[in-house]
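Lab notebook, bench 4. The sequencing result for the construct came back, and we need a structural model before the next group meeting so we can plan mutations. Quick request posted to the team channel:

Model the 3D structure of this chain.
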Amino acid sequence: MTKRTRRNSAGFTLIELLVVVLIIGILASIAIPQYFKVVERARIAEAEAFISSIKQAQERYLARQGTYVTSMANIGNLDINLPPATSNYGVKFYTPSLGAGTGTGCATGDPFYAITMTRLLANAGVAPRYSPAAYVATYERCTGAIDYGSCANCNLDFKN
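Done. Here's the predicted structure in token form:
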């Protein structure tokens, strides 16, 4: 019997390369959806920060005036410095609106309002997980919570 010797046996075999590619594929299939979740969470943080600043200003306005501001036309009455409406009030990924709300959860006669943040698609797309693509985040004053309506995955991923 003759023994075969390997000369120049440097490098990887095809099987070793396929295993590495398979492992990278598995890691990517786990990491990519998580990445989109983290990116969208960062964008919803922008909406939550806007809602928080409006909530605080609304409470100060209520203490002075006895009512809330319930329209974007009157948002300038609040004691906060917002960028102009032409720049979407400084919000990049959402279109904010302020309305009277439904009063759900309020005692009879209590004043209320709602802040609605509609996801903009122009500045950045939305992952298919968060369909409908232009989901809406609504804060109702009386419930004190943000609801994402028909976007079930938004309710799962973004609620604290």
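Residues 129 and 155 are 12 Å apart (CA to CA).
Will bring this to the meeting.
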